Amino acid sequence: SLLGSQIFMLDFQASRWLMNQDVPQQAGNNHPTSIPTGVFETSDGAINIAVAGQAIWERFCKAMDADEWNENPDFNTADNRSKNRDALGDEINKRLRKKDSATWIDLFNEAGVPAGEINSIDQVFADRQVKHLGAATKVQSPALGEIELVSQSINLSRTPSTIAAAPPERGEHSDEVLQSIGYDAAEIADFHARNVV
């Protein structure tokens, strides 16, 4: 699924949450050319809005109850919005802070303006669809006990993906690797004695 693929692409950010319950903070998400497209603040969090092209801009202004922006020479064209990105962002945030995320998302979606919620990592993994997809897999770690790791997002019926083991601790398999390339027990013991491994 697209959601499963997105979860998998969270990469180390997902691992930060699943292993340590560390919720990474936003680092920015503005589109370089479609303005305004990016992260905007509401009364209860943040949402992502994608305004690409003049037609969506006009629908966006109507949904924001800001028709005057269509006449404002700072915002009325894509070039002007680009030149005045920060000022426009400030105006948008001022208005968005008056309502909650869910209300704005509904208004934008009804108007045909792409918008959606932005979830923190803990919210992602608490989502019922994410749970249904099995996006996190529990494994037993010798050092950490039971931990969760990001599951594979591709699920094949005849060859299902599984996580065989937790990630190894540093040096956990050194002896086996050395044995597999021909070192005997005495040589491996010598490596340990000399802190080679």
Task: Summarize this structure briefly.
About 45% of the residues lie in helices and about 15% in strands. By secondary structure, the protein is an alpha+beta fold.
Structure description:
The chain has a 3-stranded antiparallel sheet, covered by helices on one side. Helices cover 43% and strands 14% of the residues. The mean pLDDT is 92. A hairpin with a 3-residue loop joins strand 4 and strand 5. It has a domain at 37-119: formyl-coa transferase, domain 3 (2-Layer Sandwich). It is built from 10 helices and 5 strands. By secondary structure, the chain is of the alpha+beta class. The two termini are 43 Å apart.
Can you tell me the CATH architecture of the domain at 37-119?
Answer: 2-Layer Sandwich
pLDDT < 50 runs, ≥5 residues: none
Number of helices: 10
The number of distinct β-strands equals 5
CATH class of the domain at 37-119: Alpha Beta
CATH superfamily of the domain at 37-119: formyl-coa transferase, domain 3
Q: Fill in the CATH topology of the domain at 37-119.
A: formyl-coa transferase, domain 3
SSE layout and pairings?
Elements: H1 2-9, H2 12-20, E1 37-42, E2 45-50, H3 54-63, H4 78-83, H5 85-96, H6 101-111, E3 115-117, H7 121-126, H8 128-133, E4 136-141, E5 145-150, H9 174-180, H10 185-193
Antiparallel strand pairs: 1-2, 2-3, 4-5
Structural descriptors:
formyl-coa transferase, domain 3; elongated; single chain; 197 residues
